[in-house]
Amino acid sequence: MEGDCVVVIEDDDRIRDLIGTVLAQLGLEVVAVSNGVDGVAEVERRHPVLVTVDVNMPGIDGFETAKRIRAISSAYVIMLTARDEEIDALQGLGSGADDYVLKPFRPRELRARAEAMLRRPRTVEQATASHVSPDAETAGGGKGPGVSGRRAVLRHNGVVLDPDTHIVERDGRELDLTRSEFELLQALLQSGRSVRTKDELARLLRGESYVANPYVGDADRRGVEVHIGNLRKKLRDSAASPYLIETVRGVGYRLAAPRE
Q1: Higher pLDDT residue, 135 or 112?
Q2: Residue 25: CB partners within 8 Å, gap ≥ 6?
Q3: What are the tens digits of pLDDT across the range 109-120?
Q4: What DSSP element (H or E) covers 31?
Q5: 124 domain residue, yes or no
Q6: Are residue 219 and residue 155 in the same domain, yes or no?
């Protein structure tokens, strides 16, 4: 992580300094600004790996700021919002954020969230053979191991995901997904008709897929639900009659049955 940059967008001087101190402990270069317009400009100039965005700011708010950032950057975005405004945090995920932290926050919590996000690979690692969709193909079009080190392109019901180029298409139309949406979709495509629980998907997004018994809270599960909802909108999928992502009530999600 040494040499990587984080942009902190927060209008409260005290909180901005605290966030900067916490993230600097991770070896990140911290660029701190007090408003969304300057924050977007710094993101465009600095190309950070991580951005923190306060929801309530003068001028453009955190939601609009996150949308503008997402339009120009694939950086991880963490929203910060007051504890009594958790619905805002979920709306933040809808604006393109990857995670959120509720204020007042403990510095250790923010650091853990940031560390987990930075541990996540730029794309989800290929799953074990038991989880690979039977509809998966290599980039060269054939079944079996990838060619020249390339990972398998995943296909299901008109959706194509290439883990190496980070491109997702539906019926030839390229989709603009956030990193979290991409990683969830890749995990589901790799799992085929096997169900992935919300807890599993939450751990995946936190980079803790292989951590023994990590804690998963209601906020993490709601975050997964929001990301899945955003994915469905972009895929033009219907929860009531899905062609791709099927809800298994009370458990999680899996791929819908293959279509002829």
Answers
A1: 112
A2: 111
A3: 899 888 878 876
A4: strand 29-33
A5: no
A6: yes
Q: How many Å apart are CA 104 and CA 227, to the nearest integer?
A: 24
CA-nearest of 164, 117, 119, 114 to 139 is: 164
DSSP strand E in 42-192: where?
Answer: 50-54, 76-82, 99-103, 154-156, 159-162, 167-170, 173-175
The first and second tokens of residue 181, run together, are: 């949406």
Q: Which residues constitute the domain of residue 34?
A: 5-119
Q: pTM for this one?
A: 0.64
Q: For residues 90 and 5, is the Cβ–Cβ distance under 8 A?
A: no
Q: Among 119, 150, 172, identify where a domain stops.
A: 119
Query: In angstroms, rounded to a whole number, what is the distance separating the alpha carbons of residues 44 and 165?
Result: 21
Does a structural domain hold residue 159? Answer: yes
Q: Are residues 72 and 20 in the same domain?
A: yes
Determine the Cα–Cα distance for residues 223 and 183; give it in Å rounded to an integer: 14
Shared domain for 97 and 135, answered yes or no, is no
Domain count, the chain: 2
